[in-house]
Amino acid sequence: MRTVISCRSVRRVLLSAAVAGSLLLGATACGGDGDRDGLPKDYKVVAGTQLCGGNAISADASKALKVITGASRFEASSKEYTVAQAASDLALAYPVGPVGGTDACRIFTPIGTPHFKLAITWRLADDAPSDDPASPKFTVLKMGEETLAGTEKAYVFFACRSAKLGGASGEAHIVIGVERGGMPRDPQDNVEALKNAYATVAHSFSLAMAKELRCDKNGGLPPKPVLDPA
């Protein structure tokens, strides 16, 4: 798993008022010299559809991010956090992937706004999901091999046959996760909307990953998220 210094470290030394308005639209970056307000030089704020390499978050998923975070603009993703890079890392790791999830993309609300972090991860599973009942915190949806939607996280399981996976004749069982970082809280209101939103973001990145890997029939994933319970 790659270790990356996050722009979040800058957040702790800035006052919200100092970075509001036009400062959020200025150019800055992690590392190197910052401007006189302390922001890195190439710091950027972008729309949801521009995150994670620019082809991983659909328009529907961008709207879903607003449901989850309350924001429609986000810190630009680091260059190493793209769906193309994640697909390349997965292909190199196959068939023996890391035990836990590997970061594929991190999503942050802009400096000067309420803090919110989402982590998008990938991992390789040994087999297809079992028939065991899911945790009651999740709703099972009809996408891929299985999709689990919760109020703070969602997982999409899909099978991939692809020449990019070392010419393997079998299927890779891939799990894409979207999880809230920081201090989660399980809300008692708008539960269905949150579950649908997390599932929509997870579907969007999963479909982008399947396309990057050139999975046969896009890993069985539908072109649009299917939010009906299984």
Number of strands: 8
Mean pLDDT across the residues is 83
Low-confidence stretches: 1-33
The string of secondary-structure elements, in order, is HHEHEHEEEEEEH
Query: What percentage of the residues does DSSP assign to strands (E)?
Result: 15-25%
Biggest sheet details? 6 strands, antiparallel
Q: Biggest sheet, strands in spatial order?
A: 3-4-8-7-6-5
Distance between the termini: 33 Å
Percentage of residues in helical conformation: 10-25%
**What is the general shape?**
globular
Question: What structural class do the secondary elements suggest?
Answer: alpha+beta
Counting DSSP H or I runs of 4 or more residues, the number of helices is 5
Structure description:
- Helices cover 23% and strands 20% of the residues.
- The chain is built from five helices and eight strands; from the N terminus they run ααβαβαββββββα.
- It starts with 7 loop residues before the first helix and ends in a 17-residue tail after the last helix.
Which properties best describe this structure?
six-stranded antiparallel beta sheet, single chain, 230 residues, globular, two-stranded antiparallel ribbon, alpha+beta, 20% strand
Topology (SSEs and partners):
Elements lengths: L7 H4 L4 H4 L25 E3 L11 H11 L3 E3 L7 H11 L8 E7 L8 E9 L13 E3 L4 E4 L3 E8 L11 E9 L10 H23 L17
Antiparallel strand pairs: 1-2, 3-4, 4-8, 5-6, 6-7, 7-8
Quick overview:
With 230 residues, the protein is an alpha+beta fold. The protein has five helices and eight strands, in the order ααβαβαββββββα.
